[in-house]
């Protein structure tokens, strides 16, 4: 970090990110009202994942981090997704 | 002593991974139980106040932004701005806790809490839902309080001149922890309050 040029993220970018997150939150709240039944959970999870991705990319500065950290984050998420898939494959096909 | 900011941040991230898997495990329990007791979970989640949940979501998102901005302020050597931004963050934390006080307080006043006679008389799915609700939001709240304490330490150090534009990894790591608190809530809110 000392050798690299310091990257200063402007305030305005954070403000834009917040607006985006608030818009997605509004969608999150409105989705159950649409009564899509089967898709409600799926859409809610997709919206939450999108928001989480935005928070990690911009607020947690993952965008500016080195590739080692990015790979580690992806690996952890893959581990978690595989645990979910394994658990549910067990429950659904039991 | 040689400083290793990259190492410090990497260590923080590894800790965050363990936290993600800790909450991940709880989300997995929630998902499986929801699958098994779909009707009960649906009925029980109607008991939660969506407005308070939504308000807390907005409060946490704003606080996340102000923490991120406080790093920019420190990098720009703007102590005053950094102080204001961190104070807004801490104020958001207090608002969140007050909301939670009323939310939990209401449930406890109608005798809906783990171990109460009312809870034990409910159907299995209801007991699971409310137990998971109290445990997950409680654990999240604990993280929020810890995050707030770290940010208070960072704030004091900024005021004392110990966190500067050259050396601010503590603020960055405190910020990362705060964003983790936000991340967890991003999933808790729709799953507990909205998905019915």
Structure description:
- The complex is a heterodimer of chains A (94) and B (196).
- Chain A is mostly helical.
- Chain A has two domains: 1-60; 66-94.
- Chain A contains three helices and no strands.
- Chain A has helices at residues 11-30, 38-59, 67-92.
- In chain A, helix 1 packs antiparallel against helix 2.
- The longest helix of chain A has 26 residues, at 67-92.
- Chain B is elongated.
- Chain B has a single domain, classed as Cytochrome c oxidase, subunit III, four-helix bundle (Four Helix Bundle (Hemerythrin (Met), subunit A)).
- In chain B, helix 3 runs antiparallel to helix 4 (79-109) and helix 6 packs antiparallel against helix 7 (169-194).
- By secondary structure, chain B is mostly helical.
- The relative contact order of chain B is 0.17.
- Chain B is built from seven helices and no strands.
- In chain B, 84% of the residues lie in helices and 0% in strands.
- Chain B has helices at residues 5-36, 38-45, 50-75, 79-109, 117-121, 124-159, 169-194.
- Strand fraction of chain B equals under 5%
Q: How many individual domains of chain B?
A: 1
Query: Count of DSSP E strands of chain B?
Result: 0
The CATH class designation of chain B is: Mainly Alpha
Sketch the major β-sheet of chain A: none
Task: Indicate the overall shape of chain B.
Answer: elongated
Count of individual helical segments of chain B: 7
Counting helices, strands and paired strands, the structural category of chain B is mainly alpha
Indicate the structural class of chain A.
Answer: mainly alpha
Low-confidence stretches of chain A: none
Q: Give the integer mean of the pLDDT values of chain B.
A: 93
